[in-house]
């Protein structure tokens, strides 16, 4: 069992009379490429917020590398290696990718607020920032203000920032959402090339990405795990089809064999 990196057991989250997460048990294995899918309102965002500590569970436990983190503050979960991608906010708009990544790498290495002075001096920080720029195909835009970047490049920067935090578990929250067709390929290739030792939980509506990326899938419906399995098992599962068919606009038109991508 020690190859389980992140798990939750009997996780419940109630908002007043609404049960958004209903007795969810999930295991993420070391090196996993695991996708979490489900129709709108299934509880995916709530579950990610519980795992990252943004929300406190009504009941249940969350374990990271064998330790109970159910009540650990979000920033301390990041320090322990549980990192999610987040949308770049105003804070980074006027900074360049190089500055942003140097800042995050500096913070990660305990250099804190002295990052800017250290940038020129600390070869380790500059080198790691440069590696990340190359890995995420941001070299050409390294010195452009983030607010001027193409949307796909911003999404790449978001993943690069998460990786700069040296995660053991990476929660990828809809990495291709809103990315124009012409910029998607680069993003898909970069996601596919994430380091094998980082375990990834992907939440995504784009079924092309889900089925090309994941080797394990969990389907959430009404806050509950409907089923879990390999992509082939999920695709063949009549219950999964019914659930998505019931929602009309979703996977019924989106399962890969039926030739559609976005749901
Ligand atoms: N803060 C909140 N207060 C009350 N109800 C909430 C809150 N957050 C989520 N919910 C409800 O919990 C349920 C699950 O919502 P959640 O956003 O987690 O689903 P989701 O699977 O992420 O949906 P989507 O794919 O549309 O983003 C929904 O019924 C939603 O209305």
UniProtKB/TrEMBL annotation:
SMART domains: AAA. InterPro entries: AAA+_ATPase (IPR003593), ABC_AA/LPS_Transport (IPR051120), ABC_transporter-like_ATP-bd (IPR003439), BCA_ABC_TP_C (IPR032823), P-loop_NTPase (IPR027417). Signal peptide: none annotated. PROSITE patterns: ABC_TRANSPORTER_2. GO terms for cellular component: plasma membrane. Keywords: ATP-binding, Cell membrane, Membrane, Nucleotide-binding, Transport. The keyword ATP-binding applies. Residues 6-247 form the ABC transporter domain. It holds the Pfam family BCA_ABC_TP_C. GO terms for molecular function: ATP binding; ATP hydrolysis activity. This is ABC transporter ATP-binding protein.
